[in-house]
Amino acid sequence: MGRKFVVGGNWKMNGDKKQISEIINTLKTGPLSPNTEVIVGVPAIYLEHVRTNLPQSIEVAAQNCYKVPKGAFTGEISPAMIKDIGVNWVILGHSERRQIFGETDELIAEKVAHALEAGLKVIACIGETLEEREGGKTEEVVFRQTKAIAGKIKDWSNVVIAYEPVWAIGTGKTATPQQAQEVHKALRQWFCTHVNADVGNSIRIQYGGSVTGANCKELAAQPDIDGFLVGGASLKPEFVNIVNAKQ
Ligand code: PEP
């Protein structure tokens, strides 16, 4: 079955109103392939501004949220709040959340489950560190991270997996198309075996880690790469080329 190509931009903690206007203009001018679903991950404080100013054909995502609808959790935002301002997606489990803010597999799985219950769609990030890759543990790690989520959710139709090797994020060191394909294929097989074949065949798996306008086409040509999650290059005009990588 067809898996629609899906490209996310993760702005991280970057951008001000001036730069965001420039990015919005770039996205509006495109042209963006109608065959690609485009989602921009925006700092929380600018979510409503970006949602209001982008055409509805471009989706907007929060970069994080908490695991309950409301309450005494100073500084957090909930999926209900994200939905309330017309935003439909959230990125969860990014390696910066895992590594800098100490988020565990368990917490990320709880957040994914609650975000889905609240009606958001989720980009769930997984990926191994350099040490884990060099120790031959890549599959063990990404399967463990995925299994934690699988323990808390049943319906995967609103989930996109982003496989982002930590050693490739923001380093300029991209996984080769073969390295990425190998992990994507193993993940799809994991879903077939541990969830079911329908989910395995239909779930979209993005690659993330130093994707650029120059390397995106070769990565996009791999059979199990269904899109990208893009950090640095999502702030630049070349993001348009990445969106169109599969054309
Ligand atoms: C990311 O932040 O998810 C990412 C992949 O960053 P970059 O593209 O800059 O490596």
From TrEMBL:
Enzyme Commission designation: 5.3.1.1
Catalytic activity from the UniProt record: D-glyceraldehyde 3-phosphate = dihydroxyacetone phosphate
A biological process term (GO) from this entry: glycolytic process
The name this protein goes by in its record: Triosephosphate isomerase
CDD domains per the UniProt record, alphabetical: TIM
Homology family: Belongs to the triosephosphate isomerase family.
Pfam families for this protein: TIM
